[in-house]
Amino acid sequence: MEVIQRSADELQTALVSKRQDLVKLYSKYTNEEKRFLEEGLHPGPSHIFQAITVLSDSDWIPAHPEKSQDFESFYRDPNRMTPNANHNTIYIQPIGSIGVAGFQTDQYVEWLRGYCQAFFYGLSVKLLPTVSVADTGCAFRVNSNSHNLQILTGDLLQFLGKQKPEDAFCIVGITMIDLYPKDSWNFVFGQASLNRGIGVFSFARYDDNFYSRNYAGRLQTQLQPKPGHYSVFDGYYTPPITSTLLLRSCKKLETYNCCLQTMTHEIGHMFGIKHCQWLSCVMQGSNHLEESDRRPLDFCPICLRKLQALLHWMEEDQSPAAACSSVPKPTEAFQTSKLWLYRCLDVLLKQNG
User: Which cofactor does it need (predicted)?
Assistant: First the structure.
């Protein structure tokens, strides 16, 4: 195990920069905002922000050496996308069945939309009507190892590009069906075109039972479906909506040599934020599910915020209105993040007091 411990001076430079124009920009934050961000200059077990822990050589940082992106290099990147008055909406496009058909499916997608709205506070997040696999016209196959159905990411990206509304900052396709990027690959969690603001991600492998021989999505008979025979997806298994599945869907996951994450991580990339190597952060890369589960839900100070809207989203399931719902929001797995947000708010309130 290795703890990547950055010095306070190094973190200060990454957060503020030494360029006078960026120092001046930072000085416009309120004292409370600056005090909160500067909590990250001294990470530790008893502090709000934590240093990065690498457990093995298979973790992202040792496996994929990358140059650290500080605030200055982010700010000066000419290729990063920036929302504006004409492109200020994040669209979520469900593809195929997600969860149990009916109300629970709609509720799950709405939870994802609400979380994304809270995370990217200030932007509008809208759901597009669910489309079937047949609607996308994508190629598909049966995976020879897992014996489950998979759909081709490149075809889905082409479909999403045509569906992208004019006011979109980005459009993200979500599906419970496994994906593959080309015939030679076993699978991929997702794929994206960041400069076009288009991505597609599968949550199929977030099911705890996916890698089990008893996984319900394994086809019991050897199928050789012909191109265009989309009837094989009728009634195809999708994993149940659990707290862990919702947590992983809100976070992110990456696999080797491809750009794919779930919502907040990948949309963060679309803003121009690269993989974080400063502190424990949702923008860190992950090579495997166990590594992804170690990552927090939130940005570190250098990658940026948002507290109160997320806490409100997590607590909505305890409100009187939510109590009337037949499907309570499964937020048990969010308890660690919720406690972290309470600690953050305590810091801000103490500074105000």
Answer: Zn(2+)
For residues 218 and 176, membership in a common domain is answered with: yes
CA distance 273 to 156: 24
Query: pLDDT by residue (tens digit) across 129-163?
Result: 999 999 999 999 998 888 889 999 999 999 999 99
Q: How far apart are CA 351 and CA 344, in angstroms?
A: 11
Which candidate, 247, 252, 307, places its Cα nearest to that of 283? 252
Pair of tokens at residue 353: 């007091």
- CA nearest 81: which of 207, 1, 192, 158? 192
Helix H or strand E segment including 256: none
Active site residues: 266
Name the residue range of residue 103's domain. 83-271
Assess contact for 233 and 320: CB atoms under 8 A: no
Inter-axis angle of helices 308-315 and 335-352, nearest 10:
130
Q: How confident is the model at residue 246 (pLDDT cuts 50, 70, 90)?
A: low
- What is the count of structural domains for the chain? 2
Higher-confidence residue of 198 and 195: namely 198
